[in-house]
Amino acid sequence: MTDFESDHADGPVTDLSSRNPDWWRQAVVYQVYPRSFADADGDGLGDLRGVTERLPHLAALGVDALWLSPFYPSELADGGYDVVDHRDVDPRLGGLDDFDALVAEAHRLGLKVVVDLVPNHTSHLHAWFQEALAAGPGSPARDRYVFRDGRGAHGELPPSDWQSVFGGSAWQRVPDGQWYLHLFAREQPDLNWDHEEVREDFRTTLRFWSDRGVDGFRVDVAHALVKDLREPLRDLGSADAAGEAALAAAAPGTHPFYDRDEVHDVYRDWRRVLDAYSPPRTAVAEAWVPGARRALYARPDELNQAFNFEYLQAPWDAEALREVITSSLAAARAVGASATWVLSNHDVLRHASRLTLPPDADDNAWLLSGGRAPRLDEEAGLRRARAATLLMLALPGSSYVYQGEELGLPEVADLPFEVLQDPVWEQTGHVRKGRDGCRVPLPWTTTGPSYGFGAGGAWLPQPEYFARYAVEAQDGVEGSTLELYRTALRLRRKLLEGEELTWADDGPPGVLAFARADGWRCVANLSSGPVPLPPGEVLLTSAPLEEGGALGPDTTVWLA
Question: 330 vs 142, 152, 247, 335, CA distance in Å?
Answer without folding.
Answer: 43, 49, 23, 9
